[in-house]
Amino acid sequence: MVSANREMAVFCFDTLVAHYNSEQAPPPAFDEGQHPLFVTWKKVVNGGEPRLRGCIGTLEACALINGFKDYALTSALRDRRFPPIQPKELPNLECTVSILTDYETALNYLDWEVGKHGMIIEFTDPDYNVRRSATYLPEVAAHENWTKIETIDSLMRKAGYNGTITESLRKRIRLTRYQSTVYTLHYSDYASYVKRTRGEAPEMAGAGVRSNNHHLLFHPALSCVIKLMV
After folding, report:
1. What are the backbone angles phi and psi of residue 156, rounded to the nearest 5°?
2. Looking at the whole model, is its pTM more than 0.90?
């Protein structure tokens, strides 16, 4: 099974830096494959808790190399919840790559484990008779210290449902659970890796961005959107 790893996160940083420099990113140092994936960018300022700056991915299997290249830029620059990440923010960024595995149809909306499973919910909005869906990655519920019901209710709101949440409505949810492997890389560690393996630290044309050698604290991804902003 393919697992998320450092080279995937390095490639995401390479892709973003190359975009700012109007260059081609170096070829990735991981093998091709077909998997669902997410790319999450977070920003740490003054040692505080990382704050989400963009997170987009796909629940459908895609080619890993093109997928990470696409979603590294899409999550950094085109997550509609946030302004595009600017070059000057790079030293404060961390990148988390996620590869999704083990999709299973749950028996009911409670048939999943906090911290182990991500979930995709699908249900019909009774007020508008439209189908709604949303997903949380496996880290979300544990990070937020939510119960299963709190997680499901939050996910229903994320899907766009604004009506009253009842037990009857929860029971009509179709839930697909999945697992993931994740890898988080700080910009400082990325820059050190590049300097060690390529002979010089990354530099932004005209932006004066170089590695700072401090280490940043990190936490799991909070909330992500999937392809087409579902």
Report:
1. -65, -40
2. no
